[in-house]
Design brief:
About 5% of the residues lie in helices and about 50% in strands. It is globular and about 85 Å long. About 30% of the residues are buried. Keywords: Signal.
Length: about 675
């Protein structure tokens, strides 16, 4: 049965199941006198991406990030009975009108001095993109009673403030990582003393489908991930001269498939004790990586990596049997990582403040072998994070500080190298991490390099609330890093040549009017980062300036009449990064929305950038992007149409490419030009 027919049949079956049941997390019966409740949610996204004007013949990824359509569907079922809860989520991706390997192979590219016939690099790029995929993404069963909760299957987890371990969902960045295994949480009160513990273990389960790029992440295979998509081989249909036989006949070169993810295993836990006055906790997590390095090197030495059969050349036999790929940071170059530490929380200080401090140690062991069988050196580091708040009358003062030395995020064991992994890698998944150290930064700041590996920093913020519904605020941050200029500074060399110094400050208002129906949230800021000594490796010229940015952000709502309001939301930035760009550029966006509360919103957006290269060959001037959209939200769920059309989002137009950041986690989004329809149904 064709794949698109299978997807349609699946959706039809699910819709029939929904329509035959009772609406809205309803009781559908009883077992042993206890009610049974069923909750169904389905999110369907259908979009088509036209030419986004970023083609550059040097980068195959830019040729295949447009001119394709996709239907992404996530079906969630939750079943409740007694103390039990069962959850199932099925993810599907169906693609249409996509670039085909044949089109890529025979594409001809012309330039003033050469003609290129065929693009085998594009064929390899398509090997892991636009593959119809249907699999059970999340499964779990949980049991809960007073003071005890046990889960088998998929679950989220965070220890402390995320320094030791943290996996959660970030919809803005298309990240949704869970642990698939078991978790037990126990809490007990003994007089004024509260005791608790959380213990878990399993294998990490990142999403396998990236909606933005159409890339599929392939695991090595594990009994825990039954029904998950498998890897495939790739054949270059047009010969490469170096592989032609003695008579000059075409030789088809087949690269055997290999995974882009080797399943990581984690064990961890937390024990805590405290009263209303003070709370103590100990956290620990150990990450264990799967590795075939020795077997792979033995296979290469035996000469088993390729096999010639007639006019067919089969390569990559060693990587197929013993998957191996580039480890491009310290975290991925070690097969055992231990994070451990403790925290102290004082939730109330004389009813006018609170304080929190966490200290964590890290050990990176079992170094990955290089081609000479030399293991990466053991590394040890630590992190200290502290925050405090003081409140008196209308004034609130918040302090936040961090001191990290050789402290690395728990990066997923993913082949994120965009060059060596062509055909099998998954660079779009490089931001999947299993820890999230606090940044002490505004949530939208774009990190450069790896600043948090070796840094000492702090930020202070003051809020003055002159009315219950209105306030002004300002902040000042100071950040000294030795891994921003040099992300490879894994030993945390604190010499002046490695050091960058940043000031970040801003101020804003949070005002409400007309009994909360109108508001004005406006803030502006400036950030400047300099190297400790003049640096000569920048394309923008020698000097101390490493990065500068001035920005204004706003969210303004004006009530018009009745249920109608007008909203303006925007972000405008002036930026300079001489490391990569010759001149200053400006970028930003403004979105205007007419709201008919609570059901309908109409949106018009304008985005722009003057960054060099916003379109291939463009060195000056602006690139503009225009878009519009509609949002519908059902008021209640009394009828089946309201349940099916709970939330509808329609987007038509263009968006500029660039980084999007949430609390220090960033990913690059390519430019977009297309149509996107999202339908959320709740039953």
């Amino acid at each position: 049965m064709p794949s698109h027919i299978r997807a349609l049949s699946l959706s039809t079956l699910l819709l029939a199941s929904v329509c035959s049941g009772t609406a809205g997390a309803a009781e559908i019966g009883a077992i042993d006198g206890k009610p049974v409740t069923l909750d169904l949610t389905n999110t369907a996204v259908v979009d088509y991406r036209f030419d986004n004007r970023n083609d550059d013949r040097r980068y195959p990824t830019r040729y295949v990030d447009d001119q394709f359509g996709e239907w992404i569907d996530r079906f969630n079922l939750q079943f409740f009975w007694w103390r039990l809860q069962l959850g199932v989520r099925v993810d599907t991706a169906t693609y249409f009108i996509t670039p085909s390997p044949g089109d890529a192979e025979f594409q001809r590219l012309f330039s003033s001095d050469e003609v290129v016939f065929g693009r085998p690099d594009l064929v390899r790029e398509l090997n892991t993109r636009f593959l119809n995929t249907y699999y059970p993404a999340k499964l779990y069963v949980s049991y809960s009673q007073s003071g005890v909760e046990a889960t088998v299957g998929d679950f989220y987890a965070q220890l402390g403030r995320g320094l030791v371990f943290s996996v959660r969902k970030l919809d803005e960045l298309a990240i949704d990582t869970t642990v698939r295994g078991g978790k037990l949480t126990v809490n007990q009160a003994v007089g004024p003393l509260r005791l608790g513990g959380t213990f878990f273990g399993g294998q990490m389960n990142p999403l396998r489908i990236d909606e933005v790029s159409g890339r599929r992440l392939h695991g090595d295979g594990s009994p825990l991930f039954f029904g998950f998509p498998g890897r495939g081989s790739v054949t270059d249909l047009e010969s490469v001269e170096a592989f032609a036989d003695a008579q000059g006949n075409t030789v088809n070169v087949t690269q055997l498939g290999r995974p882009s993810y080797l399943e990581d295993t984690v064990v961890g836990g937390r024990v805590e004790a405290g009263t209303d006055l003070v709370q103590l906790a100990a956290n620990g997590a150990m990450l264990l990586r799967k590795s075939y390095t020795r077997e792979y090197l033995d296979c290469i030495e035996r000469g088993d990596d390729e096999l010639r059969s007639g006019n067919n050349l089969i390569q990559g036999r060693c990587a197929n049997q013993y998957p191996e790929f580039t480890r491009n940071n310290a975290s991925r170059r070690h097969d055992t990582i231990r994070n451990f530490g403790g925290s102290l929380n004082i939730p109330s200080i004389a009813d006018h403040g609170d304080a929190y401090v966490e200290v964590v140690g890290q050990q990176l062991r079992d170094g990955h072998l290089d081609l000479t069988r030399t293991p990466a050196e053991d590394l040890s580091g630590y992190a200290v994070y502290a925050s405090a708040n003081a409140r008196g009358g209308p004034l609130t003062l918040a302090l936040e500080g961090k001191h990290y030395r050789r402290f690395f995020p728990l990066a997923a064991n993913i082949d994120a190298d965009p060059i060596s992994g062509v055909g099998f890698g998954a660079p779009e998944f490089s931001l999947v991490n299993y820890s999230q150290p606090p940044t002490a930064e505004p949530i939208y700041i774009e990190p450069i390099g790896a600043p948090n590996v070796c840094i000492t920093a702090g930020r202070a913020r003051a809020d003055y609330r002159f009315r219950p519904d209105s306030a002004v605020y300002a902040w000042l941050g100071r950040y000294v890093s030795w891994s921003e200029l040099d992300p490879e500074n894994e030993t945390c060399d604190t010499s002046r040549e490695k050091q960058t110094n940043a000031w970040d400050y801003g101020a804003g208002t949070d005002l409400e009017f007309e009994k909360g129906r109108s508001h004005a949230r406006v803030w502006a800021g400036f950030r400047r980062t300099e190297t400790e000594v003049p640096y000569s490796g920048f394309v923008g010229g020698e000097g101390e300036l490493f990065y500068s940015e001035t920005y204004v952000r706003y969210d303004i709502v004006k009530h018009l009449a009745g249920a109608f309001s007008l909203q303006f939301q925007g972000n405008h930035r002036r930026r300079f990064r001489p490391e990569n760009f010759v001149r200053v550029w400006i970028e930003g966006e403004n979105y205007t929305a007419l709201q008919w509360a609570p059901n309908l919103v109409g949106i018009f957006g304008v985005e722009y950038t003057s960054q060099e290269g916003c379109e291939p060959g463009r060195t000056e001037g602006f690139c503009h992007y225009f878009n519009g959209g509609l949002q519908w939200k059902a008021t209640n769920h009394d009828t089946l149409p309201e349940q099916i059309f709970d939330t509808v989002n329609l987007f038509v137009g263009q968006r500029r490419g660039g980084l999007r950041c949430v609390s220090g986690v960033c990913r690059f989004f390519p430019p977009l030009e297309g149509v996107r329809l999202e339908l959320v149904s709740r039953f």
